[in-house]
Design a protein that fits this description.
By secondary structure, the chain is of the alpha/beta class. It has 16 helices and 13 strands. The chain is 50% helix and 17% strand.
Length: 352
């Protein structure tokens, strides 16, 4: 009997030791993060020497999956959280269980979002709401309204010039833009190339602006090699004759930067014994031009930040996290977008 029990215990331990890695994706299959995770997992497991399974945990605002990682899964040494920009936005203004400061980073891509509009564009802006899109409509409001004295003035201008359409799925949003029911859209680089560039080639659409890649040394957005020119600040300056600035701009820069820098990021528990193995596999993957080419088919050419360097990126993000900017962001969500949002004083007090 003792031998039998010992054998069973050893068998279970061996099974656990050789269990597959799991990538937790907080959305249903087919979403942008799901596609990215699938491509990265396929290339990463070649360097890791072990299988990676994609586990989808969808839910409202993509929050339940990340909450489950935080509460139940993160102590598993073979579980990796695949977080995205919508998670970062929720971290700032929504009631969530997860907290980036409690995990160890494996790596991330420092990404961008491209905003396009129809060539027959006329005011008001008609734009579809969605997860992670609030920074886009903030930027659009800044471009349409220009320098204004306070948040109430932006609220008035927003109500006059912006129609933010709720409840549209991705395919519906794209079809509505093609038909002209929406006159503005936003996409990742790969999706923009697929859905908007064909319209640009037919002179039905154009790049309006891009948010830019956050420079982790200066804290300012910089150019995106995938779409040269039309950086938000340059488009704003060309229209209004001055640099974007002020309280509303600072709130936009806060949420845009969190969203884009953390748009595709990999996290494990701080005490995960496999973290260094994962980081090494990620570095090996990024040194393989064939693997990189496969990933960039989906994402475009964007820089990776690996391992402890992510902590430096988080420190730069937190430098934008002032009480005023966060309060104004919450105000924007509740008073203008009429969405649920809460002010989190702990985020400001516990900055890196």
């Amino acid at each position: 009997m003792k031998k039998l029990l010992f054998g069973l215990i050893m068998s279970v331990c061996a099974t656990l030791a050789h269990a597959d890695y799991r990538f937790i994706v907080p959305q249903a299959p087919g979403g942008g993060t799901s596609v990215w995770a699938t491509i990265v997992a396929k290339e990463l497991e070649k360097k890791l020497g072990e299988k990676i399974i994609i586990e989808h945990i969808p839910g409202a605002n993509d929050i339940p999956g990340f909450n489950k990682f935080h509460n139940e899964l993160r102590k598993d040494s073979k579980v990796v959280m695949v977080a995205h920009g919508g998670n970062a936005e929720s971290y700032l203004v929504h009631p969530v269980d997860y907290n980036y400061s409690e995990y160890a980073p494996v790596g991330l891509m420092n990404l961008d979002i491209i905003v396009g509009r129809r060539t027959d564009f006329k005011s008001p802006v008609r734009f579809s709401a969605g997860s992670g899109m609030n920074p886009d409509v903030m930027a659009i409001t800044l471009l349409e309204c220009g320098p204004l004295p306070n948040l109430e003035a932006y609220k008035k201008c927003y109500n006059e010039k912006i129609v933010y359409v709720e409840g549209m799925k991705g395919n519906d949003r794209r079809l509505s833009f093609m038909r002209g029911e929406l006159n503005t859209t936003r996409e990742t680089t790969a999706a923009f190339n697929k859905h908007v560039v064909p319209m640009i080639e037919k002179r039905e659409a154009e790049v309006w602006f891009k948010h830019g890649i956050l420079d982790l040394k200066t804290g300012k957005p910089t150019d995106d090699v995938n779409f040269k020119g039309k950086l938000f600040a340059d488009v704003y300056r060309a229209r209004w004759g001055k640099e974007p600035s002020g309280d509303f701009y600072n709130a936009y820069l806060l949420v845009k930067s969190y969203r884009d820098v953390l748009q595709k990021s990999l996290w494990v528990d701080k005490n995960n014994p496999n973290r260094e193995k994962l980081i090494k596999a990620l570095r090996d993957m990024l040194a393989d031009p064939v693997a990189v080419a496969e990933i960039e088919k989906d994402t475009g050419k964007y820089p990776w930040i690996i391992g402890d360097d992510v902590n430096g990126a988080m420190k730069q993000l937190d430098s934008l996290l002032t009480a005023k900017a966060l309060k104004d962001l919450v105000w924007w969500n509740t008073q203008i977008l009429t969405q649920r949002a809460v002010y989190k004083d702990d985020l400001v007090k516990n900055r890196r």
